[in-house]
Write a structure and sequence with these properties.
binds adenosine-5'-triphosphate, globular, disordered N terminus, alpha/beta, single chain, 272 residues
Length: 272
């Protein structure tokens, strides 16, 4: 199965923070990635779309080293992940933050304790500094200070997302992986979350890889979009490139009934 060349766009060379080449991933007889190529550039918010079950989460998990690949290469921060020592791998892991679809906070721990988990695992900090850093992260994601001592069960869906985001920022990552961050949020909450991610990108210089089905996020938060289909990238570029594509799935996704419900000025859907 042929794949697009290593660089697809005519833009000047940019700093590739993650480079995926000829990636093949499968489970038993089922091949999910069929020679996929993708670059994630430093400082961008890349939206990753595609039909359900095509492998968006699998790609994320493969990059993160949670799913083994059959072949191909993955370079993270310019280094091939194959052959990395465990120590190096752990150093790399400190440079990314992950927000899984369900938020995945530990239910028995308070927000503060959740945020401090990665810090305790990777850093050697005093309790005073741990508290100070957790307080900072809580403020960064727009939660009130009293959220620190709450359990996840005491939080709304939007607050859980923010708390999980705060935890993913615990180690001051360079890149954030967000798996459907606005799913389950009402349109206003989703819009606020997108704004927060865009602000964090600006202020912290973050790179963001965001798996999403949320058209509004693609319009309002993403600098670039990559679309997955049949185990490969079928299109990538700014929203205009998606709108101009004549690929059948992209046409129905970006020009279908739901897409037409978007307020032209970039407002969110009337209904989620
Ligand atoms: N651990 C696994 N074992 C076997 N098959 C798996 C495993 N993980 C994922 N798959 C399969 O890989 C395919 C891609 O799944 P994935 O969750 O990545 O899709 P997706 O594009 O993220 O879907 P959605 O948009 O619905 O979240 C699916 O057919 C899924 O059943």
């Amino acid at each position: 199965m042929s794949s697009p060349p290593a660089r697809f766009d005519s833009a000047p060379a940019r700093d590739v923070i993650i480079g995926v080449r000829d990636l093949v991933v499968g489970f038993g007889d089922k091949i999910v990635m069929k020679g996929l190529n993708l670059d994630i550039y430093r400082g961008e918010i890349l939206g990753f779309v595609g039909p359900s079950g095509q492998g968006k989460s699998v790609l994320t998990r493969t990059i993160l080293g949670l799913v083994p690949k059959r072949s191909g290469t993955i370079e993270v921060f310019g280094e091939d992940v194959d052959g990395m020592t465990m120590t190096r791998r752990r150093q790399i892991e400190q440079r990314w933050g992950v927000l899984f679809q369900q938020g995945a906070l530990f239910s028995a721990l308070t927000v503060k304790q959740n945020i401090q988990m990665p810090m305790r695992e990777h850093l050697n900090l005093s309790e005073r500094l741990l508290d100070e850093f957790a307080r900072l992260k809580i403020e960064m994601v727009g939660l009130k200070p009293d959220a620190a001592d709450k359990l996840p069960s005491e939080l709304s869906g939007g607050m859980i997302k923010r708390a999980a985001l705060a935890r993913s920022l615990a180690l001051d990552p360079e890149i954030l992986f967000l798996d459907e961050p606005t799913s389950g949020l009402d349109p206003i909450g989703a819009g606020e979350f997108d704004e927060l991610v865009a602000t964090l990108k600006q202020t912290l210089g973050l790179t963001v890889f965001m798996v999403t089905h949320d058209l509004d996020s693609l319009y309002t938060a993403c600098d670039r979009i990559a679309a997955l289909g049949d185990g490969q990238i079928i299109a990538q570029g700014p929203i205009e490139a998606m709108l101009a594509s004549d690929h059948p799935w992209l046409r129905s996704y970006f020009h279908g009934k739901r897409a037409r419900a978007i307020v032209p000025q970039g407002g969110r859907h009337a209904a989620a």
